[in-house]
Amino acid sequence: MLLTKKSEYALLSLISISKHNEPVNVDILSKELEISKSFLAKIMQSLAKADLVISHRGVNGGFVLNKPIDELTILEIVVAAEEKNPMVFECSDAISSCPNNKAKLCTIWPLLNNLQFKVNDFLAKLTLKDIA
């Protein structure tokens, strides 16, 4: 469950916003990307709450990026959209907080933890500019 529709729509929205010279409102984005306006509005609120976009009110209002496109990492966008860290597997990042209370029996935790670290590292190095 690494990338859900929230993440996908957040990425597509930010790419679209980056291509405009003025604030882009949710109406325009939802039509352009063929995404439900109400669902997109919630995603944009999450991105604004995380300071990835700035919301401008009024007739000419909408959203603009709060950082240059080459400084917005995919990891921070996904975390903002999902409102939690992306997880490759439902596995804890520490043996001491294993959700199944079977950490001492788990032989695959080191592998899963290493994979999660590599995915996070990859997403932290990848920027919106890299995928736009």
UniProtKB/TrEMBL annotation:
InterPro entries per the UniProt record, alphabetical: Tscrpt_reg_Rrf2 (IPR000944), WH-like_DNA-bd_sf (IPR036388), WH_DNA-bd_sf (IPR036390)
Molecular function (Gene Ontology), one example: DNA-binding transcription factor activity
GO CC, alphabetical: cytosol
The organism's place on the tree of life at top rank: Bacteria
Coiled coil: none
Pfam families: Rrf2
Record-linked SUPFAM superfamilies: Winged helix' DNA-binding domain
NCBIfam families per record: rrf2_super (TIGR00738)
Designated name of the protein: Transcriptional regulator
Native source organism of the sequence: Aliarcobacter trophiarum LMG 25534
Taxon lineage: Bacteria, Pseudomonadati, Campylobacterota, Epsilonproteobacteria, Campylobacterales
